Amino acid sequence: MPGWFEWKIAIRYLRSNRRSRTLSLQTIISISGVTVGVAALMATLAVMTGFQHKLRSKILGINSHIVLTDGRGVPLAHPESIAAIVQQLPGVLHVAPFVMGQAMLSADKVVAGAVLRGVSPDEEEKVTRLQRYMVRGQLHDLIRPAAAKRPGIILGEDLADHLNLDVGDTVDIISPNGTPSAFGMIPKIRHFAVVGIFKSGLYEYDNTLALLSLSESARFLGIPAGSVSGLEIQVAHIMDASRIAREMATRLGYPYWPRSWLQMNKNLFSALFLEKTVMFIILVLIVLVASFNIISTLTMIVMDKGKEIAILKTMGATEGQIRKIFMIDGVLIGLVGTLLGLPIGYLICFMLEHFYRLPNDVYFVSHIPVIIRSRDILSVSISAIGISFLATLYPSSQAAKLDPITALRYE
């Protein structure tokens, strides 16, 4: 460990001259480089983490943590007995049935394809956050008779806008399977009353998803009585969903197919993780560039202080002590730059989150989400200080090897 002697000499070498208490211009430039790199790296990681968390929150607001279906693509028979088995697994909180299918929606000669999801409002509120996304109407309106005595339907906001529909309007649902008659297969058409509109912020759902009651969707899609398309499952900790899904597959066996939210969105979240990793590597290069300033600063100090280094050696200073002096200088530059960069990074994050707005018609959020995690701060700090330390190895080695006789020959 370096003693007071090394620290005193190291701090003196960072000043502009022996009598001044101000830092030299080269030292200030080196610290500034590290500061900018740390601030940029911290702000970028915070924004990317925020977007990742916001997107995950949106997806899990519409979908459950785990979806259990029949791997053969047929309706799930005896859902109550299966739900009872699933409910006994550690970590499982709630289980809800659902019915899923595709159909065409038609209103005033405007047609759009949609994904029909049949839900039980009481059970659905336990496994998703659909009720929070309702902008008009309530999820329970699906099981309340509409004014026209027609079954209710809830549409995504973009889908409702495309069909020019609002609460109280009527929409026709056309089944692609049709229904048999004396004249062959004819389209199955039913009239539904719009009882609510939701907005999740994700175009994929707001433009294609339509909600029906569990019984009405099963009847319209031809699902056998007592069967459903699958089960939605909520777990205590979302990061345990994949493990619980594997345990569920082992417990239930073939043909049951449980999938966690990570499996269903694997490509999306893998791309986000890869993007965050690549951005971290790229922005670390800023700190790496700043390390060249540290190398040049310490090299200039070695050249400028050659006489003093030689005197220190003649007075008994060892090569290890000389090396520690310049290592301390480099680590101090990295430490001060990191300590200055972190609050600046916080300030940038605060300004981005509160003063920069995003267009709602393009992005799923109105402002830039920012999440600052302690592990991100730790990784940024370790990277900056570690690179600063590595930058001291060459100049400190050169200073330690300085021959005092050669340095003092022409003095």
Helix coverage percent: 40-55%
- Rg, please? 33 Å
Gap between N and C termini? 33 Å
What's the story with the biggest beta sheet? 6 strands, mixed, barrel
Question: How many DSSP E strands?
Answer: 12
- Overall 3D form: elongated
List the secondary-structure elements in sequence, H or E: HHEEHEEHEEHEEHEHEEHEHHHHHHH
What portion of the residues fall into strands of 2 or more residues?
A: 15-25%
Which class do the helix and strand fractions yield? alpha+beta
Count, helices = 15
Mean pLDDT: 83
Strand arrangement within the widest β-sheet reads 3-4-9-6-8-7
Name the poorly predicted regions: none
Task: Return the domain count.
Answer: 2
Describe the structure.
This protein has helices at residues 4-13, 25-62, 79-87, 121-127, 157-162, 203-206, 214-221, 241-252, 261-264, 266-304, 306-314, 319-355, 374-390, 393-400, 404-408, and strands at 66-70, 76-77, 92-107, 110-119, 134-136, 152-156, 170-181, 184-198, 209-213, 227-228, 230-235, 256-260. The chain is of the alpha+beta class and 411 residues long. The longest helix is centred in the last third of the chain and has 39 residues, at 266-304. The strands form 2 sheets. The protein has a 6-stranded mixed beta barrel with strand order 3-4-9-6-8-7. A two-stranded antiparallel sheet has the order 2-10. The chain folds into 2 domains: 4-59 and 268-408, no CATH class; 73-254, no CATH class. Helices cover 52% and strands 21% of the residues.
